[in-house]
Amino acid sequence: MEYKELIKEALKYRENAYVPYSDFKVGAAVLMDDGKIYGGCNVENASYGATNCAERTAIFRAVAEGNKNLKAIAIVGDMATHTSPCGICRQVISEFANRDTDIILIKNENDYKVKKLEDILPGAFTKEDLAK
Ligand code: THU
């Protein structure tokens, strides 16, 4: 699968990152099962714990628009490494992903790795665990 457009969108949203504390910009873009794309960036706060990561910003934007099925998510951080989603974001990705969802860790437009949820969050706690 070609993810050029999704990667471009993650890079574009990275520019909007609000990072006065870490100076670490992150961009993300999600591709939903209906073909729609939503971008996001990290939004920091003087109360550091109130910071929202780029992945969650993008996912929450999609869900708020009524879009819940994640086909792919692309993430770009400092562009020196293939930035990997944090633990909280892995958990949020798991809520809306399925076993086939592609998780794209971008270094730059031409260098990215594609992972699956099972690679990055094996044994995830999911809604099935809540079934009585
Ligand atoms: N960050 C993300 O946006 N996504 C991640 O998965 C890792 C961390 C942000 C949070 C904070 O604004 C900055 O990167 C440094 O941790």
TrEMBL record:
InterPro entries: APOBEC/CMP_deaminase_Zn-bd, CMP_dCMP_dom, Cyt/Deoxycyt_deaminase, Cyt_deam_tetra, Cytidine_deaminase-like. Coiled coil: none annotated. Pfam families: dCMP_cyt_deam_1 (PF00383). The keyword Cell cycle does not apply. Its cofactor is Zn(2+). Residues 1-128 form the CMP/dCMP-type deaminase domain. The keyword Transmembrane helix does not apply. Gene3D superfamilies: Cytidine Deaminase, domain 2. Keywords: Hydrolase, Metal-binding, Zinc. It is an enzyme of class 3 (hydrolase). GO terms for cellular component: cytosol. Belongs to the cytidine and deoxycytidylate deaminase family. This is Cytidine deaminase.
